[in-house]
Amino acid sequence: MKDKFDLELKFIMDEETKNVFMPDELKNRIMEDTKGKILKEKISVFLNRYIEIPLPAILGGLAAVMIINLMSLVKLNKDINYSDGKVIKVGYSEIIVRNVKDVDLHEKD
User: Fold this and answer.
1) Distance from first CA to last CA of the chain, Å, rounded?
2) Cβ pair 105, 87 in contact under 8 A
3) Cα dist from 9 to 1, 5, 21, 62, 74, whole Å
4) Does the structure show a pLDDT above 60 at 108?
5) For a pLDDT cut of 90, what percent of the chain falls above it?
6) Residue 82: which residues within 8 A CB-CB, separation 6 or more?
7) How far is residue 104's CA from residue 88's CA, in Å, rounded to a whole number?
8) 101: how many CB neighbours lie within 10 A of its CB?
């Protein structure tokens, strides 16, 4: 239900927009942009985007990966006491032969 204010506002808008002209080219471009795109076009638009990754983030991630990989080269078990057992070296591995009582304490049921 329209009241007096609605009609007056419509009259004012009609008066102000009477001389406004929109070219056909602009109308066609607007209509093309509002049409629904098919799935193939949507996927193509999604895949053809640029992704910007800041350089500090790349360098930080690369440094973290390098640190994790280099940690495997560092011997982490430095608290092993070699004096109470026999050490047998096979290639790059070390086998520590200890008393049966020492091994028994660390076994899980």
Assistant:
1) 83
2) no
3) 14, 6, 21, 62, 79
4) no
5) 12
6) 96
7) 20
8) 7
Q: Which two tokens stand for residue 67?
A: 């640190």
> Which residue's entry shows tokens 């047998």?
88
Q: Which residues pair with 89 in a beta bridge?
A: 94
Token pair belonging to 48? 């053809």
Strand intervals (E) in the chain: 86-90, 93-97
User: What pTM, to 2 d.p., does this model score?
Assistant: 0.30
Structure tokens at 9: 């506002």
Cα separation, 77 vs 100, in Å, equals 21
Characterise 91 by phi-psi region: left (phi > 0), alpha (psi -120 to 50), beta (else): left
**11-51 pLDDT, tens per residue?**
998 888 888 888 888 888 888 877 777 888 888 888 888 88
Dihedral of the alpha carbons of 95, 101, 106, 109, in degrees to the nearest 10: 120
